[in-house]
Every structure is written in structure tokens, then in C-alpha cells.
Hints:
Strand content: 25-35%
Shape: globular
CATH class: Alpha Beta
Order of helices and strands: EHEHEEHEEEEEHEEEHEEEEHHEE
Radius of gyration: 17 Å
CATH architecture: 3-Layer(aba) Sandwich
CATH superfamily: Acetylglutamate kinase-like
Structural class: alpha/beta
Number of strands: 18
CATH topology: Carbamate kinase
Bound molecules: adenosine-5'-diphosphate, magnesium ion
Distance between the termini: 18 Å
Amino acid sequence: MIVVKAGGRALEANLDKILESLAKHFKLGKKLIFVHGGGDTVSRYERLMGLEPRFITSPSGIRSRYTDEKELEVYVMVMAGKLNKEIVARLQALGVKAIGLSGADGALLKAVRKKKLIIVNERGRKRVIKGGYTGSIKEVDVEFLEKILDSRYLAVISPIAIGSEHELLNVDADQAASAIAIAAKAEKLLILTDVEGLILDGKLIHELRADDFEKIKEKIGAGMNRKVMLCVKAVKNGVRAAIISSGLIEDPLSAIEGGRGTRILP
Ligand code: ADP
Ligand code: MG
């Protein structure tokens, strides 16, 4: 099984090619789980609904969306609705039996709601704020996923989880993909984004050993730092290889066969 995640910008710029690539590999008999992002689309709809999207940065430099009750409504509408169903419909058009699920469906992704968040403000000062509706994934229903894949469906998963009080929660899509890959003992995790991979000092890093991450993590900027961290976590927890690669190219899933992007190895 292969878990593929694509970020919102890559999806917006190259949706057809990404879905064609998924369809091609699905038809070759691969078991595929596709996790999509879509932050920019959520932001656009928030603005249409009179809300201003907010982003926060943690002390370790991880940047994420802040989601209050109103923002969660838009988040769920766009992620589980518009984006997920558009992807499902387009995959069907390509002859793929696709099924769209949020992490709340079948309680596929269970998360713990973050009560408090430590953030760093513009002046570099730490501050504690209420957690809003953001969660950390604690459990993945692998059996449910396997049933879907064994029935020869391609699962399209939106980054929403269900909390311990049955509340819907925003979960980061990279985290969702990594958690699913670990729980399902996926052979590969492929994260497609809008750059070629991890770039350090202007050069693409082709291979990174998980143990070398600590030495370079401070040098990686927002967005990529989270991906590399989650890929390291995945390969340290049984996923054989995690690859961060461009989603802007023709047949981006070919990166799993080698060569392209940054490969994180255990
Ligand atoms: P996605 O929507 O795919 O999740 P993100 O914006 O969250 O994309 O993360 C990808 C971004 O990370 C890239 O567009 C790039 O600007 C940024 N980035 C920061 N540091 C690096 C780095 N060292 N190498 C590559 N990209 C980096
Ligand atoms: Mg991102």
C-alpha cells in the first residue's frame, strides 16, 4: 500500500496530472490512499464568508492554520465537501473506483483536541492561546481502511478527524498522511508539494537518513520542516521509504520508483 499526499497548491496547479498519475498506478494494481490538503481554498472561502484566515507558528517553527468554531465550519465544507468530492468525481471520470472519506467517517481518524497552543508572536515572544478546533491524530482505523482497499477502491481522505467528544477537528494533512502510513504499515509515503523536495543551501537533497534530521532541522523553513519531520517519523515507525517530491510535474507518482525528490530513509 502506498499513501500519497498532495498539498493544496500542487493540486490547484496540476490537479489533472496528479489524478491521472493516481489513476495510472491504481490501474497497475497498486493499493492507494490519497490524502489531500487545500488550505488556500479554505482561506478563499473563509474570506468569501467574511472571515479572515489566521496562521500561527509554534516555538519549533511549525506553521499552521488557526481554526475557531466558525472557521471549522468553512474548513469542513471545503475539505470534506467541495475538494474531496471534486477529486472523487474526477477520479471516477478516469475510470477509478474512488471513495471519498473524511477522518470522521467510520471514525477513521481519531484525534485529541489541542486544549492550548504555544505560539510565537511577531516579536519572537512565546504566548499560550486556546487550542481551537485543531487535533493531533491518536488512532487510525486500519481495519476499515483495509476493507475499502481490499474492495478495490482508491480512498480519498480529507484532513479532518473526530475528537474524543465527537467534535470535528482540523488535522494537518501531512500529519494525517504520515499517521495513516504508519498505522497501515504502508510500504511508501509520498508527499507531493510545490517544490522538488528538501532544498538546503540551494541544492536538492536526494537522500536523507532519519538520524541526520536533528543536525539540519533548524535550517528547514516553514512548510517543509513539518514534512521532513513527519517523513522521519514514518520511516522510524516501519514505513520503508518516505519521499517528498514535486506535484507540479507529469506523472508525479513516478517519484515512488526512484530518482525524483527527497527520499527519507530509516
Ligand atoms: P503544501 O501545500 O504542499 O503542504 P507547504 O507550503 O506547507 O506546501 O510546504 C512547502 C513549502 O515549504 C515550499 O513551497 C517552500 O516554500 C517551503 N520550504 C521552506 N523551507 C524549505 C526547504 N528547505 N526546502 C524546500 N522547501 C522549503
Ligand atoms: Mg502544508
